[in-house]
Amino acid sequence: MLPLYDRALLHTAARIRGIKTPSQLARVTGLSVPTAWRIWNGVGAPRGDHADRVADIVGISASHLYTRASARAGAAA
User: Fold this and answer.
1) What angle do the packed helices 7-16 and 62-76 form, to 10 degrees?
2) Who's near 77: CB < 8 A, 6+ residues apart?
3) Is it the case that residue 1 has pLDDT exceeding 50?
4) What's the confidence (pLDDT) of residue 35?
5) Among candidates 45, 44, 22, 46, which has minimal Cα distance to 34?
6) 63 closest CA partner among 29, 43, 38, 71
7) Which of 7, 1, 23, 14 is nearest to 68 (CA)?
8) How far, in Å, CA of 35 to CA of 77, rounded?
9) What is the rounded distance in angstroms from the CA atom of residue 74 to the CA atom of residue 34?
10) Separation between Cα atoms, residue 3 and residue 67, nearest integer Å
11) Cβ contacts of 5 within 8 Å, gap of 6 or more
């Protein structure tokens, strides 16, 4: 099972940096548009190198992105 990640945190951090669409995310990270779309829309979780690239661009750590979502999922159980 892929780890959960916090899409809301991703969107908030990205918007602070002027990234409002998956295509903008693709452009600034160098990811393909389909990959950025999947990450942006929560279709699966980004693999490590993609998560690192996205996290660097939006100004958060990849581990923080995953940790918040995992903590929330555990609290809901």
Assistant:
1) 140
2) none
3) no
4) 93
5) 22
6) 71
7) 7
8) 30
9) 30
10) 9
11) 42, 45, 46, 51, 65, 66, 69
Tokens of 76: 């809901």
- Written as one letter, the residue type at 70 is S
pLDDT for 68:
54
Rg of the chain taking only CA atoms, in angstroms? 12
Q: What is the pLDDT of residues 6-20, one digit of tens each?
A: 888 899 999 999 999
DSSP 44: S
* Structure confidence by residue, pLDDT tens digits, 19-33: 999 999 999 999 999
- Three-state DSSP at 1 gives coil
Say how far apart CA 23 and CA 3 lie, in whole Å.
24
Q: Identify which has the larger pLDDT, 25 or 48.
A: 25
Percent of the chain with pLDDT over 70: 82
